[in-house]
Amino acid sequence: MATLWHGRFVEGPAETLQALNDSLPFDQRLFREDIAGSRAHVRMLARVGLLDEADAAAVLDALDAVEAEMAGGTFEFAPSDEDVHTAVERRVTEIAGDAGARLHTGRSRNDQVATDLRLWVRRELAELAALVGGLQATLAARADDAGGAYLPGYTHLQQAQPVLLAHHLLAHGWALARDVDRLLDARDRADVSPLGAGALAGSSLPLDPDGTAAELGFAARFENSLDAVSDRDFVADALYALAMLGIHLSRLGEELVLWSTDEFGFVGLDDGFSTGSSMLPQKKNPDVAELARGKAGRLIGDLTGLLASLKGLPLAYNKDLQEDKEPLFDACDTVRLTLLALDGMVATLVFHTDRMAEAADSPYAAATDLAEFLVAAGMPFREAHAVVGTHVRAALAGEGTLADLVAADERLGSEAAALLVPGATVVRRTTPGGAGPEPVAVQRHRFAERLAAQVARIGD
Ligand code: ARG
User: Fold this and answer.
1) In terms of Cα–Cα distance, which of 204, 198, 202, 197 is closest to 221?
2) Shared domain check, 200 and 150
3) What is the tens place of the pLDDT at every residue in 250-267?
4) Inside any domain, residue 151
5) CATH number of the domain to which 393 belongs
6) Is there a catalytic annotation at residue 277?
7) Where does a domain end: 70, 105, 140?
8) Domain count, the chain
C-alpha cells in the first residue's frame, strides 16, 4: 500500500498503527471544506505562477468530480486513505494525473486540516445558533399564550414569590440569548485562515496566504505559522459555548421533569414528546427533558477531554491534535438533536395554570408584600420583616389565619390583608426586569428585539 510518505520508508504500515492512526471514519464529514480549501489553494498557486492555467483547470475539474462522488455516495475509498485529505488528493491525482500531483505544492495537512476545521466550525456554529433561536422563539410564543398565568417562583426550591409564567419562560430565553452570543463569538474566533502556514514554518515558494484567506471568506489570515497549525483554541471555545448551552438546556429539562411530576402537576406532556413504561401502565415519562439533563454531562466531557488533549503539547502540530474532531462533532450533533427535541417538547406541552395558581396562592408567598406595605408606611425594612415574620410564625402555629392576624394588626389592617387575596401580589412586581405584567410586557418587547439582532448577527 502506497502511503503519503512511501519514498522515505521501506516497510508498509502495521495494521494496528493504521487502525489507530486513521481519522477517515470521522473526518470524512469535512470533505466539502477540504475541497473548498483545495480550490482556494489551487487558484492561489495559479495566480502566483506555481501552477499553469491548464493544470489548475484540470485540478479544479477533478475537485468538482470528487465533490460530486463524495456527495453522491459513489466515492470509493482506498485502504491507503488515512484521512479525508489523503482520500481527496489521491482521487484528484487519479483523475487529473500529473496536474493532481501538484495540488499539495506549498501545503501540509497541518495547515489543511486546521483550515478545514475552521471552515466547518464557522458554518456549524451559525446553524446551531439559528436552532437556539428556534427554541427561544418557542419560549416567547408560549410566554405570549401564558397571558396573566402565574406560578410560585422558587429559591432553594422553596416557594418564594409568585411570578408570571411568561417571566419564568423568558428567563430561559435570556440564558439562551447568551448562548447564541457565545456561539457567535466562537464562530468569529474560528474565522482566521491558517492556510499557507505549511507544515509549521511557511514556505520558500511565493504563496499568498492573504489571497487564500480572502477567497475562503475568512476575516483574517494567521500571524504566525507555528501558532496557525497548533492552535485549537477555536475548538475549545466552541466546546465551551456548547457545554454552557447544554447546561442551560439541562436546567430547563430539570424544571420540566419537576413540573411534570404528580407532585407539581404544572405541565402535561404531549404523547409525541414523552415515553411510556414497559411495566407500569400509568406512566408517562419526560425522557426528552431527562436526556437534555443527561447530555450536558457528555458535553462537559467533550470540552474537558479536548482541554486535556491540548494541555502540555509542544509547538507545533502533534498527532494528539487529531483528537480535536470527535469531541467537536459529538458536541455539535448532541446539541443539535437535543435542541430540536426540547423545542418540540416545549411547543407541545400543556400548562396546568390552575395548579400553578393554586400553588402560588399560599398566603405566605405574599409575606414580602406585607413587609413592603409596612416599609411604604415608613417602617424600617428589618423591623417590617420581623413584624410579618411574627405573624407567619403565629399562623403556622395555628393561632389564626395569616389574613386574620394581619387584619387585626393596626399597623397592617384590612388594606394589607387584601394583599393575601389570590393573584393580588404578582401584579405588584412593577420594577424594570421584574416578574409582574407591566415589566414583563416591556421585557417581551426587548426580547423580540434581541431575537431580531441575533438573526442579523448570524447572517453576518
Ligand atoms: N488527520 C490529521 C488530523 O486530523 C491530519 C493532519 C495530519 N498531519 C500530519 N502531520 N500527520 O490532525
Assistant:
1) 197
2) yes
3) 999 999 999 999 999 999
4) yes
5) 1.10.40.30
6) yes
7) 105
8) 3
User: Of 358, 387, 418, at which residue does a domain stop?
Assistant: 358
**Which of 335, 331, 350, 383 is closest to 269 using CA atoms?**
350
Residue 22 pLDDT more than 90? yes
Q: Reply yes or no on whether 250 is catalytic.
A: no
d(CA 293, CA 308) in angstroms, rounded, equals: 24
The CA 141 to ligand 1 mean position distance, Å, reads: 46
User: What spacing in Å lies between the alpha carbon of 93 and ligand 1's midpoint?
Assistant: 20
Q: Residue 379: give the domain boundaries.
A: 362-451
Ligand 1 environment, Cβ below 6 A: 23, 27, 83, 109-110, 113, 317, 321-322
Distance from residue 4's CA to the centre of ligand 1 (Å): 12
What is the CATH classification number for the domain harbouring 98? Answer: 1.10.275.10
Determine contact, residues 183/128, Cβ cutoff 8 Å. yes
Indicate if 350 and 374 belong to the same structural domain.
no
Tell me the pLDDT tens digit for each residue of 26-54: 999 999 999 999 999 999 999 999 999 99
Q: Which amino acid is at 367?
A: A
Q: How confident is the model at residue 427 (pLDDT cuts 50, 70, 90)?
A: very high
